[in-house]
Design brief:
With 343 residues, the protein is of the alpha/beta class. The chain has helices spanning 44-47, 54-70, 85-95, 131-145, 167-178, 194-203, 227-235, 261-273, 278-287, 302-309, 317-324, 330-339, and strands at residues 4-6, 13-16, 23-25, 27-30, 75-77, 104-109, 111-113, 125-127, 151-157, 184-189, 205-206, 209-210, 214-218, 239-243, 294-297. Strand 1 and strand 2 form a beta hairpin. Mean pLDDT is 94; it is low at 6-11.
């Protein structure tokens, strides 16, 4: 059963991230879009300033974090591969000694940022789920965030990477949790095979102890296929975080792709009939799922974040039926995502 409380400052309902987990807001903020100059998001050239130096992006990041706290966001999501996102978050936390203790921080290991702060890099991040990388990246995360890592996740685990069968890696993760180096342990899943990955992760154990406390997964209007498994994970007491609710911009007004013209037209009609925006429709779709603890916003501007926070908390049955008809197969969805360019 989900624990509930209320943030005295905002009046917003809070819920535990999994059984017995920290209290989090329903809306979270991921810093992938502002921790590095390049990202896979439609409309990025409009959202970010021409100056994408580390100082400029830190200012944007701090602006977003300030706005997030103001509207009651309690969960913040970073990763080793998000450029300097961990550094930016740590710097901001240090500047907000008052009121920062109640915020919940999640980070990830497994990918390494390799773009050298260039949008035109041939490779932006490189994946390795080895024991050596876990140990090194945990040290790097702790060097920046110290004891503020409430959740440490395997970044985009897949069956092919072998990490869920790597006993030494899983044992090291569990040891880090037991030793208090991190709070909870999580796994993020991605790709057309995410269901098989999640099923394996849900059963992972070390010496009879469950490995993963939290799962983070893509679940949106176009790719809702993991919903039944995520509901099962929540029933088992795991926390559930939903990412990529805007499908890298395909579920926002920034989507001007000719091949998505019919999709955008239907979303605009549905949103207009309900007096809301496309981006808010995508947020509302995710928050209607009762098993979801946190819906991550990937906002790059304060206006986007405020729009996400103002999304409806429920959708009528007709809207849900029409949105269900827009779903793509996992293979189609992930194929289209893989073709999106870095901006």
């Amino acid at each position: 059963m989900t624990d509930r409380n209320t943030d005295e400052a905002t009046g917003d309902a809070l819920r535990s991230l999994g059984d017995g987990g920290p209290l989090v807001s329903r809306l979270g903020l991921g810093l992938a879009a502002v921790g590095r100059p390049g990202y896979i998001t439609l409309g990025r050239e409009r959202d970010l300033p021409g100056d994408r130096s580390p100082d400029a992006l830190y200012r944007r990041c701090a602006e977003l974090l300030d706005a997030a706290v103001e509207i009651g966001v309690r969960y913040f999501d970073v990763a080793r591969s998000y450029g300097r996102a961990e550094e930016f978050l740590a710097r901001w936390l240090a500047s907000r000694a008052d009121g920062a203790a109640s915020l919940v921080v999640g980070s990830k290991w497994g990918y390494e940022y390799t773009a050298g702060w260039s949008v035109d890099a041939a490779v932006h991040e490189e994946k390795e789920h080895s024991l050596a990388r876990f140990r090194r990246q945990l040290e790097e995360s702790r060097a920046l965030l110290g004891d503020r890592i409430d959740l440490y996740q395997i970044h985009s685990a897949t069956l092919e990477s072998g990490v869920l069968d790597a006993d030494a890696v899983l044992a090291a993760m569990v040891a880090a949790r037991r030793d208090g180096l991190v709070g909870a342990l999580g796994v993020t899943v991605t790709g057309a095979g995410a269901a098989s990955t999640l099923a394996r992760a849900m059963s992972a154990q070390v010496d009879g102890e469950r490995v993963f406390d939290v799962v983070q997964a893509t679940c949106n209007i176009l790719e809702p296929s993991l919903a039944p498994l995520l509901a099962e994970a929540r029933q088992r007491g795991m926390g559930v975080i939903v990412k990529e609710v805007h499908a890298n911009g395909r579920l926002t007004p920034a989507n001007q792709r000719p091949e998505d013209g019919a999709l955008t037209a239907r979303l605009e009609r549905l949103a207009g009939e309900r007096g809301t925006g496309i981006d808010q429709l995508a947020i509302a779709f995710a928050t209607t799922m009762p098993f979801v603890d946190v819906v991550n916003s990937g906002a790059a501007t304060v206006a986007q974040l405020q729009s996400h926070a103002a999304a409806p908390t429920a959708l009528d049955d007709e809207a849900l039926r029409e949105l269900a008809a827009l779903a793509e197969s996992p293979q189609e969805y992930w194929g289209k995502r893989a073709a999106l360019p870095w901006h």
